Amino acid sequence: AQTVTQSQPEMSVQEAETVTLSCTYDTSESDYYLFWYKQPPSRQMILVIRQEAYKQQNATENRFSVNFQKAAKSFSLKISDSQLGDAAMYFCAYRRLMYSGGGADGLTFGKGTHLIIQP
Amino acid sequence: ETGVTQTPRHLVMGMTNKKSLKCEQHLGHNAMYWYKQSAKKPLELMFVYSLEERVENNSVPSRFSPECPNSSHLFLHLHTLQPEDSALYLCASSSRLGVFGTQYFGPGTRLLVL
């Protein structure tokens, strides 16, 4: 079974600074997807960024980027120029790749990291 | 309406009540999911439906009964719940054929069982 571990229950960063959230995972699969979701106080789960395991290039979305280390099974999220609106719970999630065309497979989530932005 | 909607947003029920949670997606997706988010556990996958067929039931107690009448609607029928079932219930949808199968979530139903 796959597991996802987020070892930082809470992180704090000054506004405009950079912060990195850690995530490690365990799987025996060679192909899979990784995601970071953000959950603000509204509890709406919002996709931040996603990464295909077979791609060596790290994904980026504006101020958000990942450091994907497949051999180490590590998938960290870097937030640059932190803004007050970035304050939220951040969840790392794993999904295996479905070759059968089924295409419907649940996500395995970590416990989350609570990110605080200091003004 | 856009995205994934859930009703009701808040629900309080007694242990002997029967209630249903509703999820509707407006994204043209054909896979839908129920997750449970409680205070001290990671999000837990409960059920997966693909093309209205249940493809996964993650060892969920029978007091939770899902229903997927079509690809746009998903229900979670609740009966004789326990206080430990109090949680945020999140619905999500995805495209079966999408490369990532990225799941898009609704705002959740916050359930309190008394």
Could you describe the 3D structure shown?
The complex is a heterodimer of chains A (119) and B (114). With 119 residues, chain A is mostly beta strands. Chain A contains no helices and twelve strands. Chain A is globular. Chain B has 114 residues and is an all-beta fold. Helix content of chain B is 0%, strand content 56%. Chain B contains no helices and eleven strands. In chain B, a hairpin with a 6-residue loop joins strand 4 and strand 5. Chain B is globular. The N and C termini of chain B lie far apart (32 Å). At the A-B interface, strand 5, strand 6 and strand 11 of A face strand 4, strand 5, strand 9 and strand 10 of B.
Distance between the termini of chain A: 41 Å
Continuous helix count of chain A: 0
Helix-and-strand structural type of chain A? mainly beta
Strand and helix order of chain B: EEEEEEEEEEE
Number of strands of chain A: 12
Measured as a percent range, the helix fraction of chain A is under 10%
Rg of chain A (CA only): 14 Å
Average predicted local confidence, pLDDT of chain A: 92
What's the order of the H and E elements of chain A? EEEEEEEEEEEE
Backbone CA Rg of chain B: 13 Å
Strand content of chain B: over 45%
Strand content of chain A: over 45%
Secondary-structure-based class of chain B equals mainly beta
Helix content of chain B: under 10%
